[in-house]
Structure formats: C-alpha cells, structure tokens
Amino acid sequence: MKNLAVIYHGAHGNTARIAQLIAEGAATVAGVQVTLLRAEDLTPAPEQLLAFDGFVFGSPTYLGGVSAPFKAFMDATGRLWKSHALKGKLAAGFTVSALPSGDKQSTLTSMFVFAMQHGMVWVGNAILPEQHAGVPYEEAANRLGSWSGLMAQAGHSSPEGSAFAPGDLKTARMFGAHVAGSLVCMACGATAEVAP
Fold this sequence. Notes:
The chain is α/β, with parallel strands linked by helices. 34% of the residues lie in helices and 18% in strands.
C-alpha cells in the first residue's frame, strides 16, 4: 500500500475543495491510501512527511506565489532537506486563483523547485484539454491548459461549491487518479546504483 498526502493551505474553502476532489480521485486507484492534511498543521512537525510515499501540494496563488502559510510549511522542512529525508518521494502540485491566469504558473514553479530541492520526483498534469475534442469550454478537463500541475479558477464572490467550472472539478478528480497511478508505478525511495 502506498501512502499519498494531499497537503494544502486555503483561506476561503476553494483550495480545500480542489484538495478534496484530488483526494477522491486518488482514492479510486487500488493500492493507494490518501490523507488530506493542512499545511499549517504540518509546519510545527514536518517529520510527519516521512510516513508518506508521495505528496500533492496545494496553495492558492497570492500575488504570484504560494500563500504565506504554505511558504512557512515549505520553510519548516529545512531540517529534512539537510538529510535528504524526502529524496525519491513523488510530488505534484495544484493551485487556485480567481483569474484564468493569475500567474498560477509561478506558484506551481515554486512548488516544483521546492520538490527538486528535496530530491523528489515531480509528476505533471498529463490531461489533454478536452475543448479541442469539442467539449464545451466550461466542462472541459484541463481547460486552462496547465502541464506542470493542476490549475483551477475560482470565481470571486461565488458560493462555495459553485465557484468552479465543472471542467475544473472533473480535472481535479482526474489529476488525483493520475498522481496516484504514478505513485503505484514507482519504487519509492529506491536509489540507482552508479557504476564506479
């Protein structure tokens, strides 16, 4: 059994909603146990990460980057970096903002660099944008065309649950299943032998 943690910070419920859907999608993959965790709960004790084989990181995009609580979580893992304790674990990321772009790519890039600093293996978003196959834009999976991770757009002042286009909700479930399937296929923690 592989253990996958969906680790997120959110202030208004939108990031938490996408995290939940990713977890639901991941849970459909046999052999994967999924746990939802708030980043701020891990900040005091980042050693909890050692219990997992893979992670999906999630944060809203605030001013072109991760939120302050999510950055505090990332910074708290410094002592794990010193021993490369997370090396070889799987990582993926998602972000939410109110605009179609909103500079979400910079948020995913910061998560990617964080994962690379720890020696993790990054899994991107392999879902083809369905609008190219004739699916209406609002209903299309990966309608925002993100490859480095999952992007979702939450409308301002929308009641929780209706903040997202149906395509973004569908994409979250599909992304969770994709990440979990990738985790099942990899040998977590295995290191390659280098010939002398």
